[in-house]
Amino acid sequence: CYRDSILFSVLLEGPLSPDDPRLLAYVKESMLLAPGSGMYELKMDVPENRAYNNYLSHLGFPVLKKLIKTIFDDQPPGFFIEAGALDGEYLSNTLYLEREKAWKGLLIEPDSKMFSFLLKKNRRAWSSNCCLAKDLYPKKEMLMTLSNTRYSSYGFGYRAMNTLASSPYAAMSSAVAHADYVPVQCFPLQSLLLALDVTHVDFISLDVEGLEEDIVEKFLEYSYGIEVDVWLVEHKNSHSNVEETDYVFINRFTSRGYSLYTITQDFSPYNYIFIRNSSKAFHSAFHRRPLEYDKQMS
């Protein structure tokens, strides 16, 4: 009834437990869109889109793609999460797995403009126009969307830096681009997965512009029975004024049964890859790790 819906809208602002049946039902019915069908509509398939496709050979993307292939090419199709999915193609760390290796997954993007572009790509993954909560309950936040001018709507270099107003990145991002603020609903990652009845995730790509520490900490401490094999996390060391390895962040994973696979330092912020010690991917991934990363981690 109307009264119940008003009450639930208040509850959505927190606190509700990540596994609350009412929350899971709402997420399943209202926040998850089914995988697309038909032909992919990708800019990478059109040679004329040179400016857009420039990322394929820059911004550290080739390095990450090589590492993802090394870890997963001998593994059967799995399930991925990509948080910070943008338009579902630009800098995507999961498109290769989906398109070439028949993986399934979930794409999460809070920017409604980027999400509208994502839906047109016909990705074979679930999608959700929301943000990941820093806490263990759903919460309304303010999303800071960036552009080079007040009238720009498709500036990917800036949109890739979108973040919540409460993020430690917010002040830095707003200093280099025009910022608009829009309300956005955030959910715990656990809630999104439980709503999909997913309890095993093979790969998470987390690019959430400064929110990763809180999200990771809450998930690793309160997983609600969900296992994650491999994490790829873009992370800037918040404990230092210069870009350097964050050993506190590494310890969050290694103290909970993960090993650091590598850190890519080709582009700032760094990307950290962790693999669960008891996962099927662990031994084959470390056995086939490129020599340059063996040297880097020694």
Offer a quick outline of the entry:
The protein is an alpha/beta fold and 298 residues long. The protein has helices at 2-11, 21-31, 61-72, 95-101, 112-119, 156-159, 170-174, 189-195, 212-221, 247-254, 281-287, 291-297, and strands at 79-83, 104-108, 126-128, 131-132, 139-147, 163-164, 178-187, 200-206, 227-235, 258-264, 270-276. The strands form two sheets. The chain has a seven-stranded mixed beta sheet with strand order 3-2-1-8-9-11-10, sandwiched between helices. Strands 4-7-5-6 form a four-stranded mixed beta sheet.
Helix count from the secondary structure assignment: 12
Low-confidence stretches: 150-154
Order of helices and strands: HHHEHEHEEEHEHEHEHEHEEHH
User: What's the CATH first level?
Assistant: Alpha Beta
The fold-level CATH name is: Rossmann fold
User: Per CATH, which architecture?
Assistant: 3-Layer(aba) Sandwich
Secondary structure class reads alpha/beta
Mean pLDDT: 86
CATH homologous superfamily designation: Vaccinia Virus protein VP39
Alpha-carbon distance between the two ends = 61 Å
Shape: globular
Q: List the domain count as a whole number.
A: 1
Organism: Halocaridina rubra
Protein name: Methyltransferase FkbM domain-containing protein
Pfam families: Methyltransf_21 (PF05050)
Domain Methyltransferase FkbM: 83-259
